[in-house]
Design brief:
Blueprint (H helix, E strand, L loop, with lengths): L34 H14 L15 H24 L2 H13 L2 H12 L9 H8 L3 H6 L4 E6 L7 H5 L2 E7 L8 E2 L17 E5 L8 H14 L10 H4 L4 E7 L1 H4 L6 H11 L1 E8 L3 E8 L30
Parallel strand pairs: 1-2, 1-4, 2-3, 4-5
Antiparallel strand pairs: 5-7, 6-7
The site of S-adenosylmethionine has 20 residues, from helix 4 and strand 2.
């Protein structure tokens, strides 16, 4: 594995494969919704009225575009909700909560996300983690005490890392959809009181972009450090020591390659102030995957990452992580 982020040049991405509306874009209130999103809302309204949708396919066969629109609208409404809450605008808060409910709430969002994990849509993101860890699999399998993984934002207990049998996994999600997934907010999870309740690896796949505000995203990244066990690695062999403790981070690609307030350089600098070093990265048209190793103590004195344009220009999205 490459230990030097700089040794890994940015892969060129053809932006024309991406939609011009980026996940970080927050449309103004009452922006005209994409047709499919309107349809999704109408169907939910029909259900609410006790009438089954007639010409609608079951959710399991949501089209790719519908799935994407539903996920995107959920993100947009969540961001608007966070802004309204911050302003203390109760009427707006109630209306936005109602619109999120009409959309099917977190449950429908998760169904759409699961749909996005289907094999024909690129498969689940943990296959990339398993690919990266392949050279370590034999060593990991030999261990009496398995590598401890905390999967934050877990939708299923049957993804590639679960199937590998190489980990002792704790799965959490704001809304648990299956046995084996604890319903818990990572930001409220009690801090570990000993090395034993810490982890060797945390997975944050498509979770950071779910957090509606930039400060909250910074806090989530900072919090990962408190859950990783830096001491356990002393007992690891050399190869495992070179990787763990680690953070597997997955984001929609536009959050990094086409955002006004963050790019890979800024993310890497931000992560380094938290003590992380990039080991792996992979960029596809839709997603960017990273594996970071936690090596050092966080440097609070260097954590000064306000909302600042680093990649100005029209057509950029507003995804941002603030770390202060
Ligand atoms: C887009 S889904 C991603 C699911 C899966 N990890 C994947 O890669 O497809 C995001 C999930 O993160 C969960 N989530 C967001 N913030 C969370 C938090 N603070 N604690 C636990 N789960 C969270 C949401 O409930 C949602 O189910």
């Amino acid at each position: 594995m490459a230990n030097d982020a700089a040794a890994k040049p940015l892969v060129a991405v053809s932006t024309n494969t991406m939609s011009t509306k980026k996940p970080g874009d927050v449309p103004k209130k009452r922006e005209k919704m994409p047709k499919t999103v309107t349809k999704v809302l109408k169907n939910h309204a029909k259900l609410a009225n006790g009438r089954p949708p007639t010409a609608t396919k079951p959710q399991a066969s949501l089209s790719h575009k519908k799935t994407r629109d539903q996920i995107r609208l959920h993100h947009v409404l969540s961001k608007q909700l966070a802004a309204a809450e911050a302003k203390g605008d109760d009427a707006e808060v109630n209306e936005l909560k109602k619109r999120i409910e009409d959309l099917g709430g977190l449950k429908s969002y998760q169904l759409a996300s699961l749909q996005g994990q289907a094999k024909d849509r690129g498969g689940d993101s943990s296959t990339v983690l398993m690919e990266w860890l392949k050279p370590l699999a034999a060593q990991m399998a030999k261990r009496e005490q398995k590598i401890r993984l905390l999967e934050v934002g877990a939708l299923s207990t049957a993804n590639a890392c679960s199937k590998s049998g190489l980990f002792d996994i704790e799965r959490i999600d704001l809304y648990s959809q299956a046995e084996g997934i604890l319903q818990q907010d990572f930001m409220e999870r009690p801090l570990p009181d000993s090395d034993k309740s810490q982890f060797d690896i945390i997975s944050l796949s498509l979770v950071l972009n779910f957090v509606p505000d930039p400060e909250g995203r910074g806090q989530m990244l900072r919090r990962t450090c408190q859950f990783l066990n830096k001491h356990a690695r002393r007992a690891f062999g050399e190869e495992l020591q070179a990787v763990f403790p680690a953070l597997f981070l997955v984001l929609p690609a536009p959050c990094i390659v086409n955002a006004r307030y963050i790019n890979e350089e800024r993310l890497t600098t931000m992560m380094s102030t938290l003590g992380y070093v990039m080991l792996e990265r992979k960029l596809t048209a839709n997603l960017v995957y990273y594996l970071w190793q936690l090596r050092d103590k966080p440097r609070k004195d260097f954590q000064d990452f306000p909302k600042k344009q680093v990649n100005p220009g029209a057509g950029r999205n507003n995804f941002c992580v603030v770390l202060k």
